[in-house]
Amino acid sequence: MKGINMLDWSMTKNILFGWIGTPLISGVLGIILSYMIL
Amino acid sequence: MWELLSGVYLGGTLGANDSANIFGTAVTTRVINFNTAVALTSLFVIIGAVLEGAGGIHTLGELADQTIITAFIASLAAALTVTLMTLIGLPISTSQAVVGAIIGSGLMEGRANFAPLGPIVIAWITTPLGAALIAYILYWIYLNLLEKKTGNIGKMDYYIKIAFIISGIYGAYSLGANNVANVMGVYVEAGLFSPQMGGLLGGMSIGLGVIYSKRVMKTVGHKTPG
Prior knowledge:
The complex is a heterodimer.
Chain A: H1 2-6, H2 12-37
Chain B: H1 5-18, H2 20-28, H3 34-52, H4 54-61, H5 68-87, H6 94-108, H7 117-149, H8 153-189, H9 195-210, H10 214-222
């Protein structure tokens, strides 16, 4: 487990936010833009 | 054809950001210079997009029926999301932005098809896990076979430089093959052009973005965990 303990996990929260947030934000933007343009 | 602008914009942002992952460390460690990295990345992104881009294009096309205007909307929503996330400094996947945008815009008119979403989400989870496993294996090979067997540091340095360039070329090819669907998939689904033409145009727009990747390359190459 030495290798795992040497890793820097400080960015994990930001990366997870990007990972989950990206499809949600683009989905909401898709809905808004469709409502405005179509 | 103005509807194509958001696709070209998305391709440019993808090229400017994602290409930095390929040669960022090689450029900042001066294994190759920036202009050579741009030329190699652009060329092999286009080759990968034309030769192998069609598969991903078909998968994304199944998420929702597209017209040219809905393709424009989905690309614009994805490009704005990538720009927003880049501005706040979060490393994200353009593929996730595009899939979210296609589903979101498709929901408005009942065009969204959730069936292909399962394999796509599984790929989102398995990709980082698979990459971590392969990186672990490669590093083990490096430590246990190459470093121990090759005593000459100069020779080792030479091998690493060659490996850097070969893996960069392969990375550029894969970037084009896998990501061109994000850029042009909706337009192909809308019937604007064939998958091969979509691959060529998408590859060229990503290649254009690579020219503007210098700043991100330097960030990737220099930024180390604090």
